[in-house]
């Protein structure tokens, strides 16, 4: 086992490697990567203590625990949702959460997906990313191109954690932005009644249910940062998960956008 | 784009108003009134936008018919003497409480010194007392309309020749409006000091009298838009400009009233009393609310200064928002700009958005499930108002178009069996249940239901009404009888005809005509 191993795709896994790249070009919540040499290592108490010590020394607090498989986040296949992600983990839950994430690689759906995408299952190795949780006011996704247009980018935003959006539980705001002019072309507001806070859904206060989630300045900032990421990662288009904590923008994830022709 | 509202159905109150001062009256017309009377307004929509001169104008819309249905409940309640007596005492007490509390704030020197959180707390305390009063004061319009409507109908049948004269006499009371009090006060000052006023050479005595007047009526130029404290100088100016005043004595009318009144049947005597009561209530309400608004404005000014926004901006908020605003004022920066363009606040006795109707998925919960009424206002800002109005139009028929053009009928299901989410059947429209009858298994369609409808409601397969909210007769009885029911379709009784075959989808609340 090694914490924050030398930076290679093999050592950090797809997600970890990307976050590491992102860290240099935008604002990413603090994280560390664990590389297991053998999946059984997580049951070893010495190794567990090493992880907990690192966590304590760096004052991580509330974290998310995510998989970072060596084949995930590729340009060809996204492995989206294949591995477990666990949010809002505190110190006492850290080790069980890591275990759960590590175990998800053994799941049948991963085996099936590999078969479908003609990936050698035995080559899929597991790294784990532990990242400080952002408590977002607004969060969402941004696609720097759309499946219909190479000139437009799309931002979707909802109150609270962006997971609510992915799960389809809320209708997000949808902003269409011109890539060249960075002008906001269209705003459609999604009526939002509930938002995901920590692990639970809460009511959105009545005065915000029909409110526009991001200000024009924030939309512009997010568009700029997203294009900057796209350029630096040298992808055709990127799919970005972002969050505003107060007025500070965090990029949570960026990967190649697989939906364009 | 300006939209024209259907004025034949909607009552529109239109005046310069600030959202804060006007929307204060919304809360008491929903949860407070619902709790007190068991029924409340069904739909209220308030739209703010600048008028041609750029002044912010509020348009308050509610349906005449709905206000009258509510008014009938108020008439029923107040015709019962013990309830009437209690009501009179309660409103008087609530009024005194409000005025006392407002004046405490008005004359307190501490307000400028406290922090913004304390200001909000003081504001919220005062607002609670305000709502406690205004829930009674909301009886004014509905009661006035319905009682006058009943009286008018009776007079038309019995006083064919001089109906309007008789009505005028019956609506006259000995009560003198505060407006007349103010004029009389000014008149008496002017009469005692005519020369001084025209020469501009003011004696101490005159100034003392003016000061007394301004202290007593400092709130008199207030409205739902802004407040202005009347100063000594204002009073002097008014005295200069004060022309001849003729205050018409109502003596002759009162004499005429006494004669007609003594011959009226007992029920209509009661109705005349209620008409009079509503008129007086409206007048005292104005004086009371103007006093309260002075105190609210004083608090708002202090809050605006401490939060670094203008008074105009802070008055773009609605009262329930203040606590959120002081937590994060920066979030409102853009929202104020959007609101300056257009701002809509709506409240309804049933959810305005489909998302708010959560139908439980398991049968046990469904047994006791009801659509919960909206307890909080629904806010929309800027360009989005246009979209929301178009959506609401389907449900509320806000905009002008004839009934014939309408294809979708939509309402809210208050009760249905989840295993039978759609029902088909034959329509029977019943407007007068004493005459029209229904065959077993037909679908009952009515403007709204009353106890006279019980037989039809019992025999029918499903109930559909035009109007009503969660506390409406149809909604309550349908749950008790476990009959599927859709309320608030607005047009069903006018579009559907006897014998039409329709299909109702309870999950969506839609009604489709299968065969005419």
Please give a structural write-up.
The complex is a heterodimer of chains A (261) and B (516). Chain A is α+β, with helices and mostly antiparallel strands and 261 residues long. In chain A, the strands form three sheets. Chain A has a six-stranded antiparallel sheet. Chain A has a five-stranded antiparallel sheet with strand order 1-2-5-3-4. The radius of gyration of chain A is 19 Å and the shape is globular. Chain B is of the alpha+beta class. Chain B is 51% helix and 13% strand. Chain B has 21 helices and 13 strands. In chain B, the strands form two sheets. An eight-stranded mixed sheet of chain B has the order 6-13-12-8-9-10-11-7, covered by helices on one side. In chain B, a hairpin with a 4-residue loop joins strand 12 and strand 13. In chain B, helix 3 crosses helix 6, helix 6 packs antiparallel against helix 13 and helix 8 runs antiparallel to helix 10. The radius of gyration of chain B is 26 Å and the shape is globular. Chains A and B meet through loops of A and helix 16, strand 5 and helix 18 of B.
Radius of gyration of chain A: 19 Å
Residue windows where pLDDT falls under 50 for at least 5 positions of chain B: none
Total count of helical runs of at least 4 residues of chain B: 21
Whole-number average pLDDT of chain A?
86
Number of strands of chain B: 13
Largest interface: A-B, 16 and 23 residues
Distance between the termini of chain A: 40 Å
Tell me the layout of helices and strands:
The complex is a heterodimer of chains A (261) and B (516).
Chain A: E1 2-3, H1 9-25, E2 31-35, H2 45-57, E3 63-69, E4 85-89, H3 91-103, H4 108-116, E5 126-132, E6 138-143, E7 152-159, H5 163-166, E8 173-178, E9 184-188, E10 194-197, E11 200-203, H6 216-233, E12 238-245, E13 248-256
Antiparallel strand pairs in A: 1-2, 2-5, 3-4, 3-5, 6-7, 6-12, 7-8, 8-9, 10-11, 12-13
Chain B: E1 10-16, H1 19-23, H2 26-37, E2 43-50, E3 56-63, H3 64-78, H4 81-106, H5 116-137, H6 139-158, H7 163-170, H8 178-192, H9 194-199, H10 204-216, H11 232-241, H12 251-263, H13 266-307, H14 311-314, H15 322-327, H16 332-341, E4 343-348, H17 363-367, E5 378-381, H18 384-396, E6 409-410, E7 412-415, E8 422-429, E9 443-446, H19 454-459, E10 462-465, H20 473-481, E11 485-487, H21 492-495, E12 501-505, E13 510-515
Parallel strand pairs in B: 8-9, 9-10, 10-11
Antiparallel strand pairs in B: 1-3, 2-3, 2-4, 4-5, 6-13, 7-11, 8-12, 12-13
């Amino acid at each position: 086992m090694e914490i924050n191993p030398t930076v290679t795709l093999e050592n950090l896994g797809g997600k970890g490697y990307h976050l590491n790249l992102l860290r240099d070009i935008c604002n990413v919540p603090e994280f560390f990567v664990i590389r297991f040499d053998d999946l059984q290592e997580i049951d070893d108490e010495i190794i567990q203590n090493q992880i907990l010590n690192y966590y304590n020394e760096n004052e991580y607090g509330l974290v998310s625990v995510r998989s970072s498989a060596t084949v995930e986040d590729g340009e060809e296949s996204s492995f989206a949702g294949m591995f477990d992600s666990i949010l809002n983990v505190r110190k006492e839950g850290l080790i069980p959460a890591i275990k759960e994430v590590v175990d998800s690689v053994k799941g049948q759906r991963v085996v099936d997906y590999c078969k479908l995408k003609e990936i050698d299952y035995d080559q899929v190795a597991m790294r784990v990313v532990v990242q400080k949780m952002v408590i977002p006011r607004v969060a969402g996704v941004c696609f720097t191109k759309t499946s219909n247009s190479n000139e437009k980018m799309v931002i979707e935003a909802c109150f609270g954690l962006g997971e609510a959006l992915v799960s389809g539980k809320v209708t997000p705001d949808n902003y269409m932005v011109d890539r060249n002019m960075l002008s906001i072309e269209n705003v459609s507001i999604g009526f939002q009644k509930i938002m995901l806070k920590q692990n639970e859904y809460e009511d959105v206060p009545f005065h915000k249910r029909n409110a526009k989630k991001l200000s024009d300045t924030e939309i512009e900032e997010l568009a700029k940062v997203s294009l900057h990421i796209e350029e630096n990662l040298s992808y055709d288009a990127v799919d970005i998960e972002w969050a505003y904590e107060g007025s500070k923008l965090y990029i949570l994830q960026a990967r190649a956008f697989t939906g364009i022709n | 784009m300006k939209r024209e509202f259907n004025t034949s159905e909607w009552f529109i109150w239109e005046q310069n108003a600030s959202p804060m001062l006007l929307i204060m009256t919304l809360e008491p017309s929903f949860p407070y009134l619902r709790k007190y009377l068991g029924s409340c307004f069904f739909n209220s929509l308030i739209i703010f936008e600048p008028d041609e001169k750029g002044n912010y104008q509020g348009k308050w819309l509610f349906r005449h018919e709905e206000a009258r249905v509510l008014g009938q409940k108020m008439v029923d309640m107040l015709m019962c003497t013990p309830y009437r007596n209690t009501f009179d005492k309660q409103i008087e007490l609530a009024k005194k409480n409000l005025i006392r509390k407002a004046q405490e704030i008005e004359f307190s020197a501490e307000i400028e010194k406290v922090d913004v959180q304390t200001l909000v707390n003081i504001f919220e305390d005062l607002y609670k007392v305000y709502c406690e009063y205004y829930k009674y004061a909301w009886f004014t319009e509905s009661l006035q309309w319905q009682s006058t409507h009943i009286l008018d109908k009776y007079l038309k049948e019995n006083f064919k020749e001089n109906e309007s004269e008789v009505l005028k006499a019956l609506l006259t009371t000995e009560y003198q409006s505060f407006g007349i009090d103010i004029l009389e006060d000014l008149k008496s000052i002017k009469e005692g000091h005519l020369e001084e006023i025209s020469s501009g050479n003011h004696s101490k005595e005159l100034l003392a009298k003016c000061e007394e007047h301004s202290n007593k009526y400092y709130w008199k130029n207030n409205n739902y838009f802004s407040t202005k404290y009347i100063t000594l100088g204002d009073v002097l100016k008014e005295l200069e400009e004060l022309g001849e005043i003729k205050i018409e004595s109502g003596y002759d009318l009162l004499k005429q009233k006494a004669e007609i009144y003594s011959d009226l049947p007992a029920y209509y005597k009661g109705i005349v009393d209620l008409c009079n009561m509503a008129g007086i209530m409206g007048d005292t309400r104005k004086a009371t609310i103007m006093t309260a608004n002075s105190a609210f404005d004083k608090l708002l000014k202090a809050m605006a200064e401490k939060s670094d926004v203008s008074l105009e901006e802070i008055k773009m908020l609605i009262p329930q928002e203040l606590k959120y605003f002081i937590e994060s004022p920066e979030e409102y920066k853009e929202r104020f700009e959007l609101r300056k363009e257009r701002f809509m606040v709506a409240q309804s006795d049933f959810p305005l958005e489909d998302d708010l109707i959560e139908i439980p998925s398991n049968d046990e919960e469904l047994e006791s499930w009801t659509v919960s009424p909206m307890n909080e206002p629904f806010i929309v800002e800027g360009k989005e108002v246009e979209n929301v109005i178009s959506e609401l139009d389907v449900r509320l028929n806000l905009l002008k178009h004839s009934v014939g053009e309408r294809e979708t009928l939509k309402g809210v299901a208050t009760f249905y069996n989840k295993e039978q989410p759609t029902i088909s059947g034959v329509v029977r429209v019943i407007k007068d249940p004493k005459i029209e009858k229904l065959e077993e298994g037909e679908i009952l369609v009515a403007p709204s239901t009353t106890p006279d409808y019980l037989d039809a409601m019992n025999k029918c397969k499903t109930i559909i009404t035009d109007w009503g909210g969660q506390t409406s007769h149809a909604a309550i009885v349908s749950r008790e009888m476990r009959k599927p029911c859709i309320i608030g379709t607005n047009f069903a009784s006018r579009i559907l005809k006897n014998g039409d075959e329709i299909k109702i989808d309870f999950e969506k609340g839609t009604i489709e005509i299968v065969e005419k």
